[in-house]
Amino acid sequence: MNSQETAPTSGVKKTSSRLLALDVLRGITIAGMIMVNNPGSWGSIYAPLEHAEWIGLTPTDLVFPFFMFIMGISTYISLRKYNFEFSLAAIWKILKRTIVIFAIGVGISYISLSWRTLDPLPFDKLRILGVMQRLALSYGATAIIALTIKHKHIPYLIGTLFIGYFLILFFGNGFEYNETNILSLVDRLVLGMNHMYKDNGIDPEGLLSTIPSIAHVLIGFCCGKLLMEVKDIHEKIERLFLIGTILTFTGFLLSYGCPISKKIWSPTFAITTCGLAASLLALLVWFIDVKGYKKWSRFFESFGVNPLFIYVMAAILSISLSNISFAYGNETISLHSYAYSILLQPLLGDKAGSLAFALLFVALNWSIGHVLYKKKLYIKI
Question: Which end of the chain is more exposed for a tag (fewer CB within 10 A), N or C?
């Protein structure tokens, strides 16, 4: 969702400020996703900027689930104009947006594979699922659920999805990092190995793990409901901190029986990251709205008002930098390799140079996003 869809209908200052904090957190997550996805070298990354290999949680593991939590809040805000009533207009908008986001995700995979293999029709090896596709499916399911069942029943649905998915993992060898995992078996059966991300046979955005990701976005939706029901800014902060604390401690407590793992999107991963996201949002509301410290946030606003467009643009730029090559000395080198291996790595070293590349890439995307922000151009996806 972009800021136009979340813009308040009244002139109440506190509501406007509240939504600014949401845009800022959205911008932080998009900037973080771009940074961790584009190091100078995948072999030279500082530990906090790497994903957990299997079980566990790193700062990098937070950016994607944070964005999904925010998407849930934004979905609640955007559906208010339909009064959460089922209608052909609402369903058509939801389905259209779901299909567009999913298609863009497949398109990015196609461009990357086609350019890398120099095959214009690489459909026999095209990955079907991915980050954008997970966003699409989770958004679409959440929005349809919000229009078709009473909201007081959604927490029970969330619990049912988490418990059902845990049972699938428990009885399906779901905590094993190999091809005997039920998630791998289902993806290979339905999608085929050639159409999956290959990580010990497990696709981190696979079919079955979409179940808890829907529950994840539904948690954000419920938080959006709790926030929008009150106008007092201090009560908003209190609710967010309370929700964040309860979810975080619940997630860590349950992790003794259900390990936290991003690659299988375990229920405890969803619960814990939603809790941390709610707490960070509460902190931002206090920092931005109550204390009035807003100047620093303008950098992230440029990401936050056009989040999906900038994310897609970054993906296309990354593919381009990795595949556009030129003659350098006696060899051919890509723009990416030249920037890291020739310019940054000799000057800063392996890991610092890799981080510098990622930060410069973030800055490049920000410069484009900032132009759109200054011109008040909001590109809906």
Answer: C
| Residue ranges making up the domain that contains 308 | 13-374
Look at residue 176 and tell me if it is in a domain.
Answer: yes
Neighbouring C-beta atoms of residue 293, cutoff 10 Å: 12
Contact 205, 130 (CB under 8 A): yes
Mean pLDDT by 10 residues, the chain (381 residues): 39 47 95 96 95 96 97 95 91 96 97 92 94 97 96 97 98 96 96 92 96 98 92 91 97 97 98 98 92 89 94 97 91 95 96 97 96 91 83
Rounded to two decimals, the pTM is 0.92
The H or E element containing residue 334 is: strand 331-334
Given a contact cutoff of 8 angstroms between Cβ atoms, the answer to whether 33 and 67 are in contact is yes
- HEC profile of 84-139: CCCCHHHHHHHHHHHHHHHHHHHHHHHHHHHHHHCCCCCHHHCCCCCHHHHHHHHH
- The β-bridge partners of 332 are 327
Cα-Cα-Cα-Cα dihedral sign, residues 11, 14, 15, 20: positive
